[in-house]
Write a structure and sequence with these properties.
Blueprint: E1 10-15, H1 18-21, H2 31-46, E2 50-55, H3 63-68, H4 73-97, E3 102-106, E4 115-116, H5 119-127, E5 131-135, H6 145-155, E6 160-165, E7 170-171, E8 183-184, E9 186-187, H7 189-194, H8 202-211, E10 215-219, H9 224-229, E11 236-238
Length: 242
């Protein structure tokens, strides 16, 4: 596809850690799923989209779960940040194996394995055609990787925030508990927040609302990221352009 056919020129894509494990609630990294994810992102990169990624760490360690089991919340969140670094390094290796030049930038200092996050340097990497993976969340406890994705999207001036997840999009009710739940093709930021539609962290959605950044929530299936970037409507669009 030619570049002018793209809906977005620069995106931040939020991937869950579980997406790399190959199954919901799974642990560890499944090499086949890692390779498939890298190939999907290679196809997106080939369209000319500038790609930044934020990957969670829930397949290795989830800070909220540690806190719920009695750990100090800040300590468990820092452990979760380190889990995201492991996933980021694995994804970098997989992307480079399929020919996508990739940089990992972390919000906490681990200079032996990744660059520190510097906004202008991240933007330069993107302009040069590198995929950039933002690891370690915001570098602060008590903030989710959803919020980190929204924050980085603002900072690097992304055109959209894409959340590839385990469901088809945002529903008016929990589809697991309610068989009659309806998929919402479009929803405003305010309704998302007022109705507590929990597919994405509310802090992240509020940040996107305040800065007018469009969010797409869709199922992580082969070809879907590319289809969204090329303008096809999938899942749910969260914005005030109703």
């Amino acid at each position: 596809m030619e570049e002018q056919t793209l809906r977005y020129k620069r995106v931040v894509i939020k991937l869950s850690g579980e997406a790399l494990s190959g199954k919901e609630g799974g642990s560890g990294i499944d090499t086949a799923m890692l390779r498939a994810t890298a190939e999907e992102l290679r196809d997106v990169h080939a369209t000319g989209v500038q790609i930044a990624l934020v990957v969670g760490g829930g397949n290795i360690f989830r800070g909220l779960r540690g806190a719920s089991e009695g750990m100090d919340r800040a300590q468990s969140d820092y452990m979760g940040m380190l889990a995201t670094v492991i996933n980021a390094l694995a994804l970098q290796d997989a992307l480079e194996r399929v020919g996508v030049p990739t940089r990992v930038m972390t919000a906490i200092s681990i200079q032996q394995v990744a660059e520190p996050y510097i906004r202008r340097r991240a933007m330069r990497h993107l302009e040069r055609g590198h995929a950039v993976i933002f690891a370690a969340g915001t570098g602060n406890p008590f903030f989710s990787t959803d919020t980190a994705a929204a924050l980085r999207a603002m900072e690097v001036r992304a055109d959209g925030l894409l959340k590839a997840t385990k469901v088809d999009g945002v529903y008016d009710r929990d589809p697991v508990r309610h068989a009659g739940a309806t998929l919402l093709e479009r929803v405003s930021y305010d309704r998302f927040l007022a109705d507590h539609l929990a597919v994405m962290d509310s802090t992240a959605v509020a940040l996107c609302r305040d800065h007018g950044l469009r969010i797409h929530v869709f199922r992580m299936s082969p070809g879907n990221i590319r289809r969204v970037c090329l303008g096809e409507h999938l899942g749910t669009t969260v914005s005030d352009d109703m």
